[in-house]
Design a protein that fits this description.
Blueprint: E1 2-7, H1 11-22, E2 26-32, H2 36-46, H3 54-59, E3 63-66, H4 73-82, E4 86-90, H5 97-110, E5 114-117, H6 124-129, E6 138-144, H7 156-171, E7 176-184, E8 193-200, E9 205-211, E10 218-225, E11 228-233, E12 238-246, E13 256-259, E14 265-270, H8 280-294, H9 302-319
Parallel strand pairs: 1-2, 1-3, 3-4, 4-5, 6-9
Antiparallel strand pairs: 6-10, 7-8, 8-9, 10-11, 11-12, 12-14, 13-14
């Protein structure tokens, strides 16, 4: 088992601590949180070992799980890498592209592995349909959340939309050609609602909407490709796959048939996948352990996290034009 320690014991940090503590691929050594009052409370309530400094924690483990605010990701990662430790970093990988590139370069220099916590890649609804998404040409995503002060230190693009950016980049194998976007600050100092249109060189277009001031929660993506429509509900963990094929010469009474203006008939049928329930956060952490032990690439590499951040910053740059 790999010895692991967690930096940050906030809302998500406590989830990581609980899951790592029950994992059979890690040995949870302890955690560090700069807020001594919160650290004492977490240690007393759950029994996890509390470290007095980042350096002490890093020196005691093989893997460092960075679940701190985005602004501190870079400094935590650099110190861990220089100590020869593998790093798991919650999304986004860093606050700036320069910071992200420094993390990538240093990880290569020291020969350590890194994974970014883009958890939706491990969502069971997406895992069940991922192999069915082939060359999508139009994608629409909606990620809406009720207001929560946590996370408002960064724009909604880095807080919420980046999940969908990463998913889209994982299925569209083409460079980004053009981006148009707009964002509005309603409550926070940074945009709380944003819409972006990403055009890829292969002709695919993705339309993304993210809001953290919605009256309801929604995390849906729709993928349109030749002869298929795929819907993934990341919140409800359900998916729907609607496909079309040439209609039979003699359709059955219950066959759904469409005929276009040219007289071509298509049959609509459902190819909904079986969804296996999982804990996405536990899965992403444990697949990282497997990548370390087998010396293979993590599921979401540092480069993947940086590419998502690059697109996110291009979207944010549109707000200031």
């Amino acid at each position: 088992m790999l010895n692991i320690g967690v930096l940050g014991a906030g809302h998500l940090g406590k989830i990581h601590l609980r899951l790592l503590n029950q994992s059979d691929k890690y040995n949870l050594i302890g955690f560090y949180d700069p807020n001594s009052k919160n650290a004492d409370k977490v240690a007393a309530e759950f029994g996890y070992k509390k470290f007095d400094s980042i350096t002490q924690l890093i020196n005691a483990v093989d893997v460092v799980d960075i679940v701190t605010p985005t602004l501190s990701h870079h400094d935590c990662a650099i110190e861990a890498i220089k100590a020869g430790k593998h790093i798991f970093i919650e999304k986004p990988i860093a606050n700036t592209l320069q910071e992200a590139q420094e993390i990538i370069d240093l990880a290569k220099q020291y020969g350590v592995k890194g994974q970014v916590g883009h958890v939706e890649r491990f969502n069971p609804a997406f895992l069940a349909t991922r192999h069915k998404i082939e060359n999508p040409m139009f994608i629409e995503t909606h990620r809406l959340a009720e207001f929560n002060p946590r996370g408002t230190d960064v724009p909604v693009v880095l807080d919420l939309m980046i999940h969908d950016i990463d998913v889209i980049l994982s299925v569209v194998k083409s460079p980004v050609k053009n981006i148009n976007a707009s964002g509005v600050s309603v409550i926070s100092e940074t945009p709380d609602i944003a819409n972006a249109r990403i055009e890829f060189e292969n002709g695919c277009v993705a339309n993304l909407t993210a809001s953290r001031i919605s009256l309801k929660n929604m995390r849906k993506s729709r993928f349109f490709q030749k002869d298929a429509y795929i819907s993934v509900d990341f919140l409800e963990k359900t998916s729907e796959v609607v496909k079309m094929k040439d209609a039979p010469e003699e359709p059955g009474d219950f066959d759904m048939i469409l005929q276009n203006a040219e007289g071509i008939k298509k049959q609509i049928y459902f190819d909904n996948p079986s969804i296996t329930a999982n804990n996405a956060i536990l899965d992403e952490l444990e697949t990282f352990a497997e990548a370390i032990k087998s010396n293979t690439n993590p599921m979401v590499t540092l480069d993947d996290g940086t590419n998502a951040l690059k697109v996110a910053h291009r979207i944010i740059d549109c707000f200031n034009k």
